Amino acid sequence: MKEKKVDKFFFIIVFLLLFIGVAMFISASLGILARSESTFYSVLFSQLVLGLCLGIVAMFICLRINYKFWRNYSFIIFIGSILLTAAVFIPHLGWNHGGAERWIQIGRIQFQPVEFLKFAFVIYFAALLSWAKNKVQDFRFGMLPFGIMITIIAIVLLKQPDTKSFILITLTGISMLFVSGVPIKYILGTGVGLVILFGSLVYTTPYLQQRVKTFIDPSQDGQGSSYQIQQSLIAIGSGGIFGRGYGQSIQKFNYLPEPQGDSIFAVLGEELGFIGAAGVIFLYILFLLRGFYIANRSPDLFSGLLVHGIVILITLQSFMHIASVTGVFPLTGVPLVFMSQGGTSLMVYLAAMGIVLNISKFQKKST
C-alpha cells in the first residue's frame, strides 16, 4: 500500500499533551529546587535531555521504520524485554528503592525496564492475535496464549512488586482480545478470575491493604498513609475554576510527595484549575478516539491491534493516575503519560507514538 502523510490530527494531540507535560513538569519540579538545587538539575537533565530529546529522536526513527518490522521481530522483542525486566533481581545491577526492586542501575543511569515490557507485550500480542486471525475464537489460540504470557509477566512483576504495571498490561491484553473477536464468555470469565486474583493479592499484601483502606476512608492517618491523597485534594480544590496560575502552586513546596511524579496532576489542577484539568482530560480522550480511528483504518489486522493496544495502554495509565490523585481509585503511583518524571518512560512513549504515526501513513480510505 502506498505511503501517505502522517495523521496530522493525532500528531497535534500528542504535541499538545507533550507541550503541556513539559511545562507542568518544569513547574512541578520547582518543589525539588526549594530543597536541593543539584537534585533539581539532575531531574531536569534526565527528563528533558534523556527523555524528551532522545524520545523525539526515537519517535522520528520509529516513524521511518515500516510497521511490519515490529511484527517480524515481535517474539525476540518480547523475550528480550522479559529478560531485561527480570534483570532487576541481579545483584549489583538491580536497584532497590522503597522496598521495591524495579530499577536497573548502570553507572549513574537508572531506568525501569517494565516500560519496555509494556510495549513489547502489546507488539507481540498483536502479532500473535493477527497470526491466529479467526482462530482466536478457539480457546487454544486466544485465551491460552494470553494466559501463558500473563503468567510469565506476573511471575516477574509481582516479585518486584509492581502490581500497577501488571494490572495495566492485563487490562490492555483483555481489550486486545475483545477487539480481535474472542468470545465474550471467555473475556467475562477472565475478568472474574482476575477480580479473584487481585482480591487475593490485596488480602495477602499489607501495602495493598493499606491503600484500599486509605481509598475507603481518606480521612484516616492524615500524617501517614492518607497524607498524599489529602494533600492532592487540597491542591486540586484550591485551584478552583481557573487555577492559581502557572508556576503558582503552593502544595508542590514541602506538601505534595513527588510533585513532579506521582502527584503532578494535583499540581496541574492547582495551577490551571478545573478548566485546565478538564482540558487535559479532554485531550487524552481525543488521543484515545483518534487512536481508535487510525486503528480502524489500518492496513491489516496486526497494525490495527498494535495501534489499539498502544493507545489503550497509554490512556489507561493516564486515567489511572488521574483517578488516583483525585481519590476515585486507590493510589497506584503510575506516572501521567507525557508529564510525570521518568526519562525512560517518556522516551518509550514517544517511540510508540512514532509507530502509530508510521501506521497512520498507510490508512485505508473511508468508504
Give structural notes:
It is a single chain. This protein has 367 residues and is mainly alpha-helical. It has one domain (8-360). The protein is built from 13 helices and three strands; from the N terminus they run ααααβββααααααααα. The chain has a three-stranded antiparallel sheet. Helix 2 packs parallel to helix 13, helix 6 runs antiparallel to helix 7 and helix 8 (184-204) crosses helix 9.
Q: Give the strand content.
A: under 5%
Looking at the structure, what is the overall shape? globular
Number of DSSP E strands? 3
Q: Give the class from helix and strand content and strand pairing.
A: mainly alpha
Primary descriptors:
single chain, 367 residues, mainly alpha, 3 strands, 4% strand
List the helices and strands and how they pair.
Elements: H1 8-33, H2 37-64, H3 68-72, H4 74-86, E1 94-97, E2 100-106, E3 109-111, H5 114-132, H6 143-157, H7 163-180, H8 184-204, H9 206-216, H10 227-239, H11 264-296, H12 301-325, H13 343-360
Antiparallel strand pairs: 1-2, 2-3
Helix pairs in contact: 1-2, 1-11, 2-13, 4-5, 5-6, 5-7, 5-12, 6-7, 7-12, 8-9, 10-11, 11-12, 12-13
What would a concise description of this structure say?
This protein has 367 residues and is mainly alpha-helical. Helix content is 67%, strand content 4%. The longest helix is centred in the C-terminal third of the chain and has 33 residues, at 264-296.
